[in-house]
Amino acid sequence: ISDGAHGLYSAYSGANSTVALHLGPANTGVGGWTSARALVAQDPDAPYTMWPGIALAPDGGVFVACASYGFDPDLIAFTPGHLRVRRLTADGLSYAGWDDAGIDEGAFDRSLFGAASPHSSLIAAAPDGAGGVFFLLGSPTGTDQGYPTLQTRLLELGGDGLPALGAPAGGVVVNEAPTYYLDGGLDASYELRPASPGTVFAGFPAYYTDAPAQYMYSLCSASGGGWGIQGDAVGHEAATTMGAIYLATFHPTGPYGPYDPPAFIALGSYDGGKSTGLLSEYHNDILQHWYGDIGLAATNDGEAVFFWSQENQKYGLFARKFNAAGQVAAAPSAARDPGVLSDVRFERGIGVRATVRLDAGERGRLALFDVQGRTIAGTTVVGTGAPATLHLPESDTIPVGVYFLRLKSPARSGSTRVAVVH
């Protein structure tokens, strides 16, 4: 991930430890960092680590998490370890109040996966927008009909390592999935995508069956989440923009047998309250190859472009643009009205100011987004029939960068870029 200052953080697990890396533009260590730094102190009973997850801390340092486990050569079996989280400063030191060995966030039992390959990560991390961090942690917790149950837990910690305000110690369980037919290993890694301060889109395998495993994104907070949008775990792409997430999935080849999936492409959107199917094409021709790959890109107006390559009936690379209501025509929508927003500027200590124009009694939503589509601030606007100048609450301390301001009502919408340079 970017360190916010032209460098990067990375983390990887080796044979005996998880290592964090901080490199600058010259491809050398930054500050007090050398070429690498061990993350988790060696536990005599669980010396092996896996699945590092990292997120940027507000001081320019980094939050890191990983799982540890052991191995008993006499029994030829894995032994339980721990899920650990740690915070490092930009100089490579443990942050004040955080133990060098990391905070123990529960047991991890590698043995319940048996011989299945752990090629997908069950740990993800993302900033919570309030100085702390979200961790999405997975661990097998028991068995159902002889198969391990994969428990997915969302944890929110403050910058001091304690549970965030209103967040329960140990986090909340957002999904439990019996892992039937797991002989080939886990099918997809966990993922966290910030949505707005205090909320995050959590991505995880929802359940396993004899067909491809299903992957789901759910809008979650420290108090939990609900059912979201889902698709195939193996072939999926996601993009977030302006408080919504788009999920594209595909399967390239038609079925071999009655329990195999067809060849298909599909796209849907989810805003935390409603999941909408936007596109689907299915083909049941036995072993006929249809699709090569897919891609998905968010746009700054809250929409997304879906790309796919096709090798049957029609050939080449195709793209369509969608919003939450469906496919977008090539021409701009008549509902887009750039005149609803004007004279937009940022003043430090006051925030984003703009002149808005809505009909008398017309209600709209004025919201500010960062370049990754996360909601930074927002307020409800009621029109007067004449231009009105207002400032956006909670936007006075936003960091330097480029943002997008959007005013949207049922009848019209307009958006513009906001540059914060000091």
What are its keywords?
single chain, 422 residues, mainly beta, 5-stranded antiparallel beta sheet, globular
Assembly status: single chain
Query: Which ranges are low-confidence, i.e. pLDDT below 50, for 5 or more consecutive residues?
Result: none
Estimate the strand proportion. over 45%
Euclidean distance between termini CA atoms? 24 Å
Number of DSSP E strands: 32
Structural class: mainly beta
C-alpha geometry:
globular
Helical amount: under 10%
Number of DSSP helices?
A: 0
Largest sheet: 5 strands, antiparallel
* Radius of gyration of CA atoms, rounded to a whole number: 23 Å
What is the averaged pLDDT score?
A: 83
Walk me through the topology.
Layout lengths: L7 E6 L4 E6 L13 E2 L9 E9 L5 E11 L4 E3 L1 E8 L14 E6 L14 E5 L5 E12 L2 E11 L14 E7 L12 E6 L2 E9 L6 E8 L2 E2 L3 E4 L3 E6 L2 E8 L11 E8 L4 E9 L7 E8 L5 E9 L1 E10 L2 E2 L13 E7 L3 E6 L6 E8 L4 E8 L5 E4 L9 E8 L4 E8 L2
Antiparallel strand pairs: 1-2, 2-3, 4-5, 5-6, 5-7, 7-8, 9-10, 10-11, 11-12, 13-14, 14-15, 15-16, 15-17, 18-19, 19-20, 20-21, 22-23, 23-24, 24-25, 26-27, 27-30, 28-29, 28-31, 31-32
What does this protein look like?
- It is a single chain.
- It contains no helices and 32 strands.
- The mean pLDDT is 83.
- The chain is globular, with a radius of gyration of 23 Å.
- It has strands spanning 8-13, 18-23, 37-38, 48-56, 62-72, 77-79, 81-88, 103-108, 123-127, 133-144, 147-157, 172-178, 191-196, 199-207, 214-221, 224-225, 229-232, 236-241, 244-251, 263-270, 275-283, 291-298, 304-312, 314-323, 326-327, 341-347, 351-356, 363-370, 375-382, 388-391, 401-408, 413-420.
- The strands form eight sheets. Strands 4, 5, 6, 7 and 8 form a five-stranded antiparallel sheet that branches.
- The two termini are 24 Å apart.
- The protein is mainly beta.
